């Protein structure tokens, strides 16, 4: 991101208004991509200065506490940093196995991934990184509650009221006119003034509207996740023994078994190209 710093204004003028960022972990404890607290905050500032809203994503994991007294390792500590840096929206996800990643098989081999919770199979829709379906924590329901607390910390009524006075959406080009000039020339002078006021009010209230939207989404998330959290609390958790394999055979370009296939994947059967007797 910082390598493109000088090009960000041109990227903004091309129409990019917001950018989703996989921050993962500000301290680079979980995933190290060369980031640090200072570099992450510098990247967020560069985006906002260029008129682009940063939308960071954090990855919660077993060893991360909800809050740390020193440093920025805790989940709430990192959310506080992102909010102070001007983040209007944020995603909080739980570490889970991702097909194609280098840790996919390792998470299964370490018996980190759940197979059943309270006698119930993991459903496909629960692989959304919001449900805690992979953890070695002795109380995985605590990790689930941490995600809830993180969202409540970021989206709440106090922040909504504060956003009406000190919004984080007042960045360059946020209120820029996007209507083509040839269309604007057809508008009356009064209508142009109205659109200008509308854009100004929209930018000032944008942060509060995002807070309201976040609280609305958080309500539905909590309503749907209470049952899952209760199962994690009281139910017996069975861990998967190995990563699921593809029922479809995988082969390399030369026709042999694919080198990237998970062990246990069916091998391709050689095609029978012998001409039939009738031919």
What would you note in describing this structure?
This protein is an alpha/beta fold and 279 residues long. The chain has one domain. It is 39% helix and 10% strand. The protein has helices at 8-13, 37-49, 75-84, 104-109, 140-154, 157-165, 181-184, 189-234, and strands at 18-24, 53-60, 91-94, 114-117, 120-121, 237-239. Strand 2 (53-60), helix 3 (75-84) and strand 3 form a beta-alpha-beta unit. It is globular. The termini are far apart. The relative contact order is 0.11. The mean pLDDT is 88.
Please tell me the overall pLDDT: 88
Q: Count the E strands.
A: 6
Alpha carbon gap, first and last residue: 62 Å
Tell the overall outline.
globular
Structural class: alpha/beta
Structural domain count? 1
- In the predicted model, the low-confidence regions spanning at least 5 consecutive residues are none
| Number of DSSP helical runs | 8
Give the SSE string: HEHEHEHEEHHHHE
Q: Strands across the major sheet, in which order?
A: 1-2-3
The biggest sheet amounts to: 3 strands, parallel
Alpha carbon gyration radius? 25 Å
Oligomeric state of the chains in view: single chain
Tell me the fraction of residues in β-strands, as a range: 5-15%
Helix content: 25-40%
Lay out the secondary structure:
Elements: H1 8-13, E1 18-24, H2 37-49, E2 53-60, H3 75-84, E3 91-94, H4 104-109, E4 114-117, E5 120-121, H5 140-154, H6 157-165, H7 181-184, H8 189-234, E6 237-239
Parallel strand pairs: 1-2, 2-3
Antiparallel strand pairs: 4-5, 4-6
Helix pairs in contact: 3-5, 5-8, 6-8
């Amino acid at each position: 991101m910082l390598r493109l710093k000088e090009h960000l204004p041109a990227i903004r003028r091309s129409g990019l208004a917001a950018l989703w960022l996989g921050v993962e972990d500000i301290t680079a404890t979980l995933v190290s991509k060369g980031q640090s607290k200072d570099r992450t905050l510098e990247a967020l500032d560069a985006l906002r200065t260029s008129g682009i809203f940063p939308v960071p994503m954090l990855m919660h994991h077993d060893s991360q506490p909800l809050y740390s007294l020193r440093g920025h390792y805790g989940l709430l500590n990192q959310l506080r940093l992102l909010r102070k840096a001007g983040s209007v929206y944020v995603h909080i996800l739980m570490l889970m196995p991702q097909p194609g990643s280098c840790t996919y098989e390792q998470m299964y081999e370490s018996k980190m991934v759940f197979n059943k919770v309270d006698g119930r199979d993991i459903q496909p829709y629960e692989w959304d990184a919001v449900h805690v379906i992979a953890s070695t924590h002795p109380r995985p329901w605590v990790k689930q509650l941490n995600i809830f607390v993180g969202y409540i910390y970021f989206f709440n009524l106090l922040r909504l009221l504060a956003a009406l006075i000190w919004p984080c959406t007042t960045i360059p080009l946020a209120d820029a006119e996007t209507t083509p000039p040839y269309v604007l020339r057809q508008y009356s002078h009064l209508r142009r003034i109205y659109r200008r006021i509308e854009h100004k009010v929209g930018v000032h209230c944008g942060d509060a509207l995002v807070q309201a939207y976040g609280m609305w989404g958080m309500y539905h998330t909590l309503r749907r996740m209470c049952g899952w959290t209760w199962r994690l609390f009281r139910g017996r958790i069975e861990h998967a023994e190995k990563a699921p394999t593809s029922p479809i055979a995988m082969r390399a370009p030369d026709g042999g078994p694919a080198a990237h296939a998970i062990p246990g994947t069916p091998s391709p059967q050689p095609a029978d190209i012998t001409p039939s007797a009738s031919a």
